[in-house]
Amino acid sequence: MSESNAHQRFTDLNVWKQARLLKLEIYELIKQFPNEEKYDLVSQLRRSARSVCSNIAEGHGRFTYKDQLHFCIQSRGSLSEVLNHLIDAHDCNYVDETKLKNFEEKIVSVGKLLNGYITFLRNAANQK
């Protein structure tokens, strides 16, 4: 992040934008789950997908790179949680193999962006 980008909004971050798209696709997917999963798997998937974006946003609003880094690491954990819940959905036959692989690719892509942002934050924190 250059000095000119240092004050950009979290909504301008590519990692947040891609995490948001993933979240929206998760929202569409869970509409197809059976009603008995409404308070279980549906709720968990919704919350973990939201958490990826929310932690990026919350970290961005923090004062220090160290704080920002902490929330991005939390976001990475939530991203792994999304994949785990999708695997659970696959195991329950709510998601077929093709959809699971498609989501897995998107999760890996968001994870790479997130890891890049984490690396940037670590480097920035070490320069202070």
The share of residues in helices is: over 70%
Pairing-aware structural class of the strands and helices? mainly alpha
Largest sheet: none
Mean pLDDT, to the nearest integer, reads 93
Number of strands: 0
**CATH-defined fold name:** de novo design (two linked rop proteins)
- In N-to-C order, the SSE pattern is HHHH
Low-confidence stretches are 1-5
Number of structurally distinct domains: 1
Note the beta-strand portion: under 5%
Cα separation of the termini: 14 Å
- Net shape: elongated
| Radius of gyration computed on alpha carbons | 16 Å
CATH superfamily: 23S rRNA-intervening sequence
Q: Class, according to the CATH hierarchy?
A: Mainly Alpha
The CATH architecture designation is Up-down Bundle
